[in-house]
Write a structure and sequence with these properties.
Elements (H helix, E strand, L loop, with lengths): L1 E5 L3 E6 L6 E8 L2 E5 L7 H11 L3 E5 L5 H4 L2 H7 L4 E5 H7 L27 E3 L4 E2 L2 E5 L8 E5 L4 E5 L2 E2 L5 E2 L9 H4 L4 H12 L5 E4 L5 E2 L2 H15 L8
Helix pairs in contact: 6-7
Length: 242
């Protein structure tokens, strides 16, 4: 597992960086490390080893969403770190528990991608606008119905999950990049994803860190181009999106 220091507060952990990169993140807080996402199954031992090398315990695990390439090692990490909190959005917690139903107010589009399933009861659920340590929770549905991003208020790093990708080119979730199309294939509802992408752009992040691909400093120009590319490609289908 490759590790990359991003600023003063965060380490990016990447599995399979040359072929199918999957990132998770360890964020330093005063009470320990916050792990954001877990990648696929089989990563728990490596994640714990990196945390031990950093000299802080993993105090909590937070998920951007419940696809298997983000939540696949959750059960193993919970077994290895029984004292760590498990936090995710209430909407996404239903998906993680195996409930694939849509709410009446949600677009009636097909859920896509492989969802992890777990019987773990979360320590708590997250809502947009909530703060967990230095991280502000930002609702960013579209890739999945309950997708969340996390904004580090200390240095402006946006951990965007799959709301954007940078592998194969910067793209809004749902916009196919031929060199790495997989996040697009797993996106639930493109109009909602575009609305979320615009909201994340408006946070004016100093860095964006994603589920798939390298982080980007000063990312707003690239984010703006990705938003424009999605609008141009999807055309009339997204005419109602603000």
């Amino acid at each position: 597992m490759r590790t990359t220091q991003l600023g003063d507060h965060m380490v990016q952990l990447t599995r399979y960086p040359r072929t199918f990169p999957m990132n998770c993140y360890l964020v330093r807080e005063d009470d320990g490390l916050t792990l954001i996402d877990t990648t696929m199954s089989g990563a728990a031992e490596d994640i714990v080893a990196v945390a031990e090398a950093l000299g802080q315990p993993i105090a909590r695990i937070m998920l951007t969403h419940s696809h298997g390439d983000h939540a696949g090692s959750l059960d193993a990490l919970h077994a290895a770190l029984p004292g760590a909190e498990i936090l995710l959005g209430a909407r996404e917690a239903r998906l993680l528990a195996g409930d694939r139903s849509l709410d009446p107010n949600e677009p009636n589009d097909k859920l896509r991608g492989g969802y992890a399933e777990s019987s773990i009861e979360p320590s708590g659920t997250l809502e947009s606008g909530q703060r967990v340590g230095s991280l502000e929770v930002v609702g960013s549905p579209g890739h999945t119905p309950g997708h969340l991003a996390f904004f580090d208020t200390r240095d402006g790093t946006l951990i965007a999950g799959d709301a954007f990708q940078t592998r194969g080119g910067v793209a809004v979730s749902g916009k196919v990049k031929l060199l790495f199309p997989f996040p697009a294939f797993a996106t639930w509802h493109k109009p909602t994803a575009l609305t979320s992408a615009k909201a994340l752009y408006n946070l004016a992040p100093a860095r964006i860190a994603v589920g798939h691909g390298e982080s980007i400093a000063d990312p707003r120009p690239a984010m703006a181009r990705a938003i424009a590319d999605a609008e141009a490609a999807w055309g009339a289908d997204l005419a109602h999106v603000a």
